[in-house]
Design goal:
mainly alpha, single chain
Length: 227
């Protein structure tokens, strides 16, 4: 990277080096032809033919360099800025069109990313699974119980050898009295590893700890932002 930057800002020096190097090779070819028995004039003519023209070779070498693309890009920018500066109304329309296009593209990408690529704000959600429990008498009818008993859940966690972790939750309505009447909110119980498993950090406070789930400990709750 340092090499092409140096050539970009020291173009004249690099052109002189290129010219000297090409002329050296041309003279070497002339000497080879002279050594083979040709006259100096014929040797130089054949050497020029073999090179294809010294100036053309120089141009090919310049175009092969990476900094030539940078120079072309800078010239395009200069031409575009000069064109926009001559017509202010056209410049405003162009800027507005670019802003509208970039904004629309950003919105569409954000929507698609949120809906398809990363629809849930949970850590590693693509590897998460949910289990439904079916009683034998209702299995053929496709009816699920949608809940586990606590002993069933504990047994599943203790006998787990395939999943990284297991989280349990139970949703229910919570009644809250604010002195003017009772209000109902959606709430639920969750195992102490729930929020840490999902990778959703609390805005304030802390996660539930493993000690919060021991029998006899005081109840601990987390409140959502809306409440």
């Amino acid at each position: 990277m340092t090499g092409w930057l140096h050539r970009l800002f020291h173009k004249r020096v690099e052109d002189e080096r290129l010219d000297a190097e090409l002329r050296f090779h041309l003279e070497e070819r002339v000497r080879d032809f002279v050594a083979s028995g040709l006259s100096p004039q014929e040797a130089r003519r054949r050497a020029n033919l073999a090179f294809g023209g010294l100036e053309q070779v120089k141009q090919d070498c310049r175009e092969a360099r990476f900094e030539s693309n940078i120079e072309d890009l800078l010239r395009d920018f200069q031409y575009a800025f000069r064109s926009l500066a001559k017509d202010r109304r056209f410049a405003l329309v162009a800027v507005f069109a670019l802003a509208l296009g970039i904004g629309a593209t950003t919105v569409m990408f954000s929507v698609l990313y949120a809906a398809v690529v990363d629809p849930f704000p949970y850590r590693d959600f693509r590897h998460s699974v949910e289990f439904d429990l079916h009683d034998l008498g209702f299995r053929d009818k496709g009816i699920a119980r949608y809940h586990y008993t606590i002993p069933e859940f504990i047994a599943i966690r203790e006998q787990n050898h395939s999943l990284e972790d297991i989280v349990g939750n139970y949703q229910l309505d919570v009644l809250y009295s604010d002195g003017k009447g009772a209000r109902r909110f959606l709430g639920g119980y969750v195992t102490t590893n729930g929020f840490e498993f999902m990778g959703v950090p609390p805005l304030l406070g802390r996660y539930f700890s493993s000690g919060d789930g021991k029998p006899g400990t005081p109840f601990v709750f987390m409140m959502n932002y809306k409440l």
